[in-house]
Write a structure and sequence with these properties.
The chain starts with 6 loop residues before the first helix and ends with a helix. The strands form three sheets. A two-stranded antiparallel sheet has the order 1-2. Helix content is about 60%, strand content about 5%. The radius of gyration is 35 Å and the shape is rod-shaped. It contains 23 helices and six strands. The protein folds into two domains: about 50 residues, no CATH class; about 350 residues, no CATH class. By secondary structure, the protein is mainly alpha-helical. Cell surface proteoglycan. Keywords: Cell membrane, Disulfide bond, Glycoprotein, GPI-anchor, Heparan sulfate, Lipoprotein, Membrane, Proteoglycan, Secreted, Signal. It comes from Erithacus rubecula. One of its GO terms (molecular function) is fibroblast growth factor binding.
């Protein structure tokens, strides 16, 4: 049995008069009857005046307006109402994160759509057959870019390389219609393409810039969705039996005691809610890292990675590459012939369509940099406000939802009667609830659902950390469950990024498997060392016994 330093206060409460006044007349239960009926319960059997409370299991057993059935109904009601408060608080956070995702996603998709439309509008008149006969190549490129952004399992660099290869094969044949160019000849040409650089520096520059921009944009959009999903799943975690009893005592026991107008003491409310949400508070560290990581990537998107310029001008860069091939056609063709030999002359003859349609690039891209800047500013403001969500949730629920009284007020409900609340407020998180006077919390049994969500936050923070450095990381979860030690060491974005990143020149997405955290691994290693330690202890005891004799 735990003995608290405030035991004297409890004795004082126990020795206080059972009734709120000094009179002997039983008080009316009209207020409780009204509340009970308003909650949808039948008034049959509800006392008209106070009765003895020896039957009560949760509320103090003084004079009361509640029967056993009423206490049970109020307990169930308080549980559902508190869970509803949690879900409502979670929905507000989900709404913010979802709105941020929707805003950025709409902006990014619009940027890509405008680039594609500009290409479709301008290229037919600029390049004639060079475009019309190869329209599918361009369409496939934008499809691949969208697939990557939507988290499809494709390699972005390979997709870009494939686009330039296909485009070069098609254009080389169209620019040299007088020759019969076989697939084998095209394979030879492609092998020499890197050396001849037929499209100039555009493919290399676009690959570097577009890859960084898409990695950052994709991870940024995913981060909002992961954060929202974590809040949704955590908000659905059920209350423990001990928490349910404490919530009932906090919310409805003053009504049973005939003190309906009393508000809970603030510190009393905080201890109850902190005990109930002990596991949720353990999300705070990784949650803050996720918010910080999202803000870090936001700065990259609106800064060095310049998403607006890179994504919005893809069509312009492609046009530059085609023009470079046209302008250097003779030189490039000569080099290809030197490396691969002269192809056979075609019997179909040549066409001048491409010559008539050739022209200098006059494409322009409309900047939407200001819109992106406003999106980033709005996102950073919301992310900053959400950083402390899990830590401030108890005080938010107590002050806004449960309307707790002032901390200095001695005319509040302290769990037993009207008076001051003396115990100190517990810290945040599961480990700090070991001496919580209001909720019995087993700190050795963390909630598995919440531990899994802590792991999801870590994974997303890792992804954002790598995106911040321009590296793509794909994670593959090979475990069916997550160990209770899931909170582990914290991993800020800059540390995770350095730990998992490869050299900037290597863009192949990495795959990291999350190992099963079962009886093997670290815990297994420590258990294997136990027999030798036990043997050493036994030898020491035998030696001591021999000396004593």
């Amino acid at each position: 049995m735990r003995v608290f330093p405030w035991g004297f206060w409890l004795l004082c409460v126990a020795s206080a008069p059972a009734r709120g006044d000094s009179g002997s007349k039983a008080r009316s239960c009209a207020e409780v009857r009204q509340l009970y009926g308003a909650k949808g319960f039948s008034l049959s059997g509800v006392p008209q005046a106070e009765i003895s409370g020896e039957h009560l299991r949760i509320c103090p057993q003084g004079y009361t307006c509640c029967t056993s059935e009423m206490e049970e109904n109020f307990a169930n009601k308080s549980r559902s109402e508190f869970e509803a408060m949690m879900k409502e608080a979670g929905r507000s956070v989900q709404a913010i994160l979802t709105a941020q995702h929707r805003s950025f996603d709409s902006y990014f998709q619009d940027l890509l759509n405008k680039s594609e439309k500009a290409l479709y509008d301008a290229f037919p008149s600029m390049y004639g057959e060079l475009y019309t006969q190869n329209a599918k190549v361009f369409k496939d490129l934008y499809s691949e870019l969208r697939r990557y952004y939507r988290s499809s399992n494709i390699n972005l660099e390979e997709a870009l390389n494939e686009f330039w290869t296909r485009l070069l094969e098609r254009l080389f044949k169209l620019l040299n219609p007088q020759y019969h160019i076989t697939d084998e000849y095209l394979d030879c040409m492609v092998k020499h393409a890197e050396q001849h650089r037929p499209f100039g520096e555009v493919p290399r520059e676009l690959k570097v810039k577009a890859t960084r921009a898409f990695i950052a944009a994709r991870s940024y959009a995913q981060g909002f969705l992961v954060g929202s999903d974590v809040v949704r799943k955590v908000s659905q975690v059920s209350l423990s039996q001990e928490c349910s009893r404490a919530i009932m005592k906090l919310m409805y026991c003053p009504h049973c005691r005939g003190m309906a107008s009393l508000k809970p003491c603030t510190n009393y409310c905080l201890n109850v809610v902190k005990g109930c949400l002990a596991n949720q508070a353990d999300l705070s560290t990784e949650w803050k890292y996720l918010m910080d990581s999202l803000m870090g990537v936001a700065d990259r998107i609106d800064g060095p990675y310049n998403v607006d310029t890179v994504i919005g001008t893809i069509h312009v860069r492609i046009a530059e590459a085609i023009s470079n091939l046209q302008d250097n056609k003779d030189s490039i063709t000569s080099k290809v012939f030197q490396g691969c030999g002269n192809p056979k002359i075609s019997t179909k003859g040549s066409s001048s369509e491409d010559k008539k349609r050739r022209g200098k690039v006059t494409l322009e891209a409309k900047s939407s940099a200001q819109a992106l800047e406003m999106l980033v500013l709005d996102a950073k403001g919301n992310l900053t406000a959400l950083k402390t969500y899990w830590i401030t949730l108890p005080s938010s629920l107590c002050s806004k939802k449960m309307m707790s009284s002032s901390a200095s007020d001695d005319k509040c409900w302290n769990g037993m009667t009207k008076g001051s609340y003396l115990p100190e407020v517990m810290g945040d998180g599961l480990a700090n609830q070991i001496n919580n006077p209001e909720v019995e919390v087993d700190i050795t049994k963390p909630d598995m659902t919440i531990r899994q969500q802590i792991m999801q936050l870590k994974i997303m923070t890792n992804r954002l950390g790598n995106a911040n450095m321009g590296n793509d990381v794909d994670f593959q979860d090979t475990s069916d469950d997550v160990s209770g030690s899931g909170s582990g060491d914290s991993c800020p974005d800059d540390v995770c990024g350095k730990r998992l990143s490869k050299s900037p020149s290597t863009r192949q997405p990495e795959t990291h498997a999350i190992p099963k955290q079962s009886g093997h691994g670290v815990s297994g290693a420590s258990s294997r060392s136990l027999p030798s330690a036990s043997l050493l202890l036994l030898l020491l005891l035998l030696a001591a016994l021999h000396l004593w004799r």
